[in-house]
Amino acid sequence: MTISLTDVMRFLGQSRKERRNLMKYKIYRLKFPYGVHFGGNSLDESKVTFSADTLFSALYQEALARGINVAQKLYESVKESRLLFSDAFPYIGDTNYLPKPMIRIAKSEQEGDSVVKKAFKNLRYIPMDQMGTYMNGDLNPIEESLRLKILGMRTLKTSAAIHGCEETIPYHIGVYYYNDGCGLYVIVGFESINEENMFYDLLDALSFSGIGGKRRSGFGRFEIESIEDVHLPKQGDNYMTLSVSLPEESEMDVLQNANYQVVKRGGFVSSENYSNEYRKKKDLFMISAGSCFQMTYHGDIYDISNGGKHAVYRYGKPIFWAL
Q1: Does residue 265 contact residue 244 with C-beta atoms inside 8 Å?
Q2: Burial grade of 152 (CB within 10 A; 0-12, 13-18, 19 or more)
Q3: How far is it, in rounded angstroms, from Cα 14 to Cα 241?
Q4: Cβ distance 49 to 96 under 8 Å?
Q5: Cα–Cα–Cα angle for 177, 183, 187, rounded to 5 degrees
Q6: Which of 263, 216, 260 is nearest to 41 (CA)?
Q7: Which position among 53, 137, 178, 304 has the lowest Cβ density within 10 Å, counted as fewest Cβ atoms?
Q8: Which has the closest alpha carbon to 26: 226, 245, 298?
Q9: What is the pTM of this model?
């Protein structure tokens, strides 16, 4: 009996799909008492949230601090889809928000006045428990836009750069502060208690060092406010990715008839052992959260090293929300 490569790939795909169906998912709510700097187009800007690849990189650095074996264990767990996580999304009070699906909602675009249509277009996040209402075109976008303004506020912190005996040069850092009862959460998938415990231990360590930029100034530190189970719908006509991700080369057919946005992910390598000088990571064009597909894919962890002394990894695996 001859087994073709196609049969092997189908078997592996089914095996990974069955593994994901057995995973349990939890929401980790994070409270940021000291403000955050999540980058932007310039230093004086800060995004409201961070991406799954940023979280993986931060966790990997914490794992390396405990030893190469811990880092390898984290890498293998994610590589084999035994541990997955989403981008960070906002929560306000008891409401968790998801990215707005990149799907045309005919009712919202055809009915109502121009103010309502513009509100639908500008809306970035949808309450998790009202996703069905949104998909039916019955969500009030003006009310939701006003509610999202409660999340927090942007501000500028002025610092000074000192170069030798020269005069100090002031510069501004964009900082975002969340209001009381507001913050970010991530959805995390585990295959077993081993992955769950490993993730919690690394996340707890990361809470003291912080995530994002300008951590030496105290930004990005957080508290794990709560952990709760969450059910992810798995059957639907479309599947929305909840994390920045990238299909494997053999999975690129999922882009057919899909609605997605491509984002460039870059930055500098933070490892002191990588090179004698700061080096940029290889740019990688990825699929942003909120993109919608007619079938799922597995993604991968990609090596984005650029001539340094060791590999540098970019997380590119999705968690899907069926619509």
Answers
A1: yes
A2: buried
A3: 19
A4: no
A5: 145
A6: 263
A7: 137
A8: 226
A9: 0.85
**pLDDT tens digits for 157-213?**
655 455 555 666 565 577 889 999 999 999 999 999 999 999 999 999 999 988 986
Token match 């992810």: residue? 232
Q: Beta strands of the chain (E only): which ranges? A: 24-31, 83-85, 89-92, 95-99, 125-127, 152-161, 169-178, 182-190, 223-229, 239-241, 262-265, 284-287, 292-293, 300-303, 313-316, 320-322
The one-letter code for the residue type at 104 is: R
Continuous H helices in the chain: 5-21, 52-66, 68-79, 106-110, 114-122, 131-135, 141-148, 193-209
Residue 258, both tokens: 């899909």
**Phi, then psi, of 236 in degrees rounded to 5:** -175, 180
Q: Please, which residues have CB within 8 angstroms of residue 209's CB and are 6 or more apart in sequence?
A: 62, 215, 221
The residues, any chain, with a CB within 8 Å of residue 170's CB and separated by 6 or more, are 158, 159, 160, 161
**pLDDT band of 8, cuts 50, 70, 90:** very low
- Cα three-residue angle 85-154-204, rounded to 5 degrees: 35
pLDDT tens per residue across span 61-93: 899 889 999 999 999 999 999 999 999 999 999
Please give the single-letter amino acid code of residue 38. Answer: F
For 167, other C-beta atoms within 10 Å of its C-beta total 8
Question: Tokens 């695996």 — which residue?
Answer: 317
3-state secondary structure of 199: helix
User: Are the CB atoms for 298 and 317 separated by under 8 Å?
Assistant: yes
Q: Which amino acid is at 12?
A: L
- Strands 83-85, 169-178: pairing is unpaired
From residue 15, give the alpha-carbon distance in Å to each of 73, 212, 303.
Answer: 21, 35, 24
Which residues face 295 on adjacent strands? none
Tell me if 51 sits within 8 A of 180, measured CB to CB.
Answer: no
